[in-house]
Amino acid sequence: MAAQMRSEAAAAPLMDEGETYTSITSNVSAITLHRRFGRLWLTGFTVALALALLLAFGVGWLLAMGVGIWGLNIPVAWSFAIADYVWWIAIGMGGTFISAALYLTRRDWRNSLNRYAETMTVFAVSVSGIFPILHLGRPWFFYWLFPYPDVMNVWPQWRSSLEWDFFAIIAYLLVSILYWYVGMIPDLATLRDRAPTLARARWYGFFALGWRGEARHWRRFETVSLLLAGLAVPLVFSVHSMVALDFSEGLVPGWHSTIFPPFFVAGALFSGFAMVLALGIPMRKAFHLEPYITERHLVNMAKMLLAVGLVVDYSYLSEIFTAFYSMDPYEVALAKNRFFGAYAWVFWSTILCNVVLIQLLWVPRVRANPRALVAISLGVLVGMWLERFMLIVTTLYRDFVPSSWGMFYPTFWDIAFLAGSMGLFFVLYLLFVRLVPVVSMFELRKMVRKRERELA
Amino acid sequence: MSDPHLYGVLAEFATAEQLLAAVARARTETRHAVLEAYSPVPVEGLVEALGPRKADRIPFWMLLGAIAGGAGTFALEWYAAVWDYPINVGGRPTGSWPAFLPPAIEMAVLGAALFGVLAMLISNGLPRWHHPLFEVESFGRASNDRFFLLLRAIDPKFDPRRAREILQTLTPLTVREVRL
């Protein structure tokens, strides 16, 4: 069976034999340099911009009125804001993982995906940062998280996972931006050299930093790319573990668990891969990228989605098992509450999306069907948001003492901030697809070079 | 006396193999030490073919960045929690070092990445927005599908006529003088 799988994989090339340096450069750079703004793009951008403006208005309203405009209150003080934050930062993880881990393991097929996956990471992490800051209550004091010699003579609480998380997000955002930008320099130089107008040549030339492709420059570039990838993979695991520690350092049932860091990392990769598929398939169609993002790429991604999804499912099972095996009355009550309580529909919807739906990916015909993959990926994204909501709310709304029980109901602004954050993400993403090459040209050229060497 | 406004002589090739062959021949025949090769894609063995060079210090700088970020953050935490503002919470130790590790590790990664990127850019002489090569029309394809070999005029063995002659024998697409 292994041999059969190998022959199946070998049968479909990652790139057509006819592709050359010239064809790759002209096809990919034409998307950025010569393509007109289509109606689809303009419609998408308008909708995204409207939602982003709603977010901007919401932020202003929140600064004026306080976090009370959201539905959160004691006992459910986290709710949407933290669910949105975890959802977005988790999506970012998948992009880094695809780009860096598959680079380290020399999977050539990542060469078509890494650019937009990294871009997705940078924007998703940027968007995610909005939520914990606004959730602080007095967001204008967010810089108190930063250790600086202030006149109050106090320091941040170094033993708090929230403080660790602050450092983790900062490090992750900056490293993602560096990794993304450095990997783009040779392509920006290509755009500089092919720009139809002087103004655009200057624009791209400025960001290309004068890259010329000298042999020794390439060598140092490759060294630093490899080392950055080597740093990025453990960073993914550590950052999302910190996110998980925000929960597991809490002493409430459902959160206080050592399984959370690995469970969260698996969930992060799961939603990240889903987002890579959900963004990539429409983009592939709109920009006619089928020669570079082939069916084999999609099949590989679908397999990875299924594999990591099964790890997530295992974590669900392990959590439930641990709750009953512990015989801790609070843990057991929480587990039963998830199954049958007021938010049972959230739990069962999560199971439907993240456990049942992905089993379709066992079927080869589904893996090869782009529409089905988009549908499943969107289902996973919904499921992963619901999972975070479920984790946060079902734990908080019933804690140890019945006198402190209470329900959570979202307000208009809860929904508006979630929709608005998607708007902001898509504004950034739609600008990206117009401004820089959506596929890494020099890494596709490396595949041509590799083929040349194999033939020689 | 050589022309002070001459930067070098540039030959253009269609394939990486031709460039590699040209580098090897240019080195043996002209005994040039200052050669530069430009390509749209990293070419294996090209750096070695261009001649001996100093080892890259990028991993060293990244290690330094990691130590600076990690040890610096840890020292800051220790200073803040043990020296500057110790709080006695039920007799727990103020120097609770395991709890100080997560920020230190994140900052070590950030320090390594920042130093690595800076080391790469600085040792490559970037950013450098203007360069004599950008004046050469055909050089635009160095970021697309062509391979270039440059014999630099600062080389003590440089002789423009001889350089041109030798480059002409290497089946180039074009040979041009690059002027400052």
How many helices of chain A?
17
Helix content of chain B: 40-55%
Total individual domains of chain A: 1
Order of helices and strands of chain A: HHHHHHHHHHHHHHHHH
SSE ordering of chain B: EHEHHHEHE
Main beta-sheet annotation of chain A: none
**CATH fold-level name of the largest domain in chain B:** Alpha-Beta Plaits
Kindly estimate the percentage of residues of chain B that lie in beta strands according to DSSP: 5-15%
Largest sheet of chain B, if any? 4 strands, antiparallel
Which class best fits the helix and strand makeup of chain A?
mainly alpha
Assembly of the depicted chains: heterodimer
Rg of Cα set of chain B: 25 Å
Q: Your description of this structure?
A:
The complex is a heterodimer of chains A (456) and B (180). Chain A is an all-alpha fold. Chain A has helices spanning 2-11, 21-33, 39-65, 79-104, 114-135, 161-182, 185-194, 198-208, 215-248, 260-286, 295-326, 329-340, 344-356, 364-367, 370-397, 412-435, 441-455. Chain A has one domain (19-146, 251-455). Chain A has 17 helices and no strands. Chain B has 2 domains: 6-52 and 128-179, Alpha-Beta Plaits, CATH 3.30.70; 58-123, no CATH class. Helices cover 46% and strands 13% of the residues of chain B. Chain B has 180 residues and is of the alpha+beta class. At the A-B interface, helix 2, helix 6, helix 7, helix 9 and helix 17 of A face strand 2, helix 3 and helix 4 of B.
